[in-house]
Specification:
Length: 196
């Protein structure tokens, strides 16, 4: 469980409300929802600046949700745990915190269940692996290795995250390791990981 460094608020797009309200029902595919696909493309065009990888990420998204994102570390300031504690660096899901091709993030599991795969502009891919007492509603907490990294690289930002795969409430270290090996920097997630 993590605690954010910042107080934050978020809003959710009308597109994401429908996906959230469906509960266990999968959000409609982009092929079946041309309006949703257009909304994602319009948001991507504002952010991509010629980056074809971002365009491909938008093609994979189920929905786009606006959130306020902050950063956390495995340290005492975020988790109340120090090195040597048996749960130091271990997320709510049981996987180790990680900043990699696919990083661990904390979210409200009512909005983003454990295992939800996101694309966060300016941060990269994130998988919901953790929760936090201050991370309720439309907030995300992104993992960084140090407090200095949180402040220097991120701070507090409002971003439109793209939901690539809705989680089922579970996440394994094996899956996280495999997807990190499979994803090349700046490239879309292989389709097999979006369906698993």
């Amino acid at each position: 469980m993590v605690t954010s460094f910042f107080t934050c608020t978020k809003t959710i797009s009308s597109l994401a409300i429908a996906a959230v309200l469906t509960g266990g029902v999968a959000a409609p595919s982009l092929a079946a929802a041309p309006a949703a696909k257009q909304e994602i493309h319009e948001g991507t065009k504002k952010n991509k600046n010629g980056n074809a990888a971002v365009e491909a990420i938008a093609e994979q998204a189920l929905s786009t949700v606006q959130v306020v994102a902050t950063g956390y570390t495995a340290g005492y300031e975020s988790t109340g745990k120090r090195p040597g504690h048996p749960q130091y660096g271990i997320t709510y899901s049981g996987v180790k915190v990680r900043r990699g091709q696919v990083s661990t993030v904390a979210a409200d599991t009512k909005l983003f269940p454990i295992g939800t795969l996101l694309y966060i502009p300016g941060y990269g891919y994130g998988v919901v692996a953790d929760t936090g007492s201050a991370i309720k509603g439309h907030r995300l907490d992104l993992y960084f290795e140090t407090i200095k990294d949180v402040y220097k690289q991120w701070g507090k930002r409002t971003v439109d995250v793209q939901v690539l795969r809705k989680g089922n409430g579970k996440l394994s270290q094996s899956w996280l390791n495999q997807i990190n090996r499979a994803v090349e920097a700046g490239k879309p997630i292989p389709q097999t990981y979006l369906e698993s």
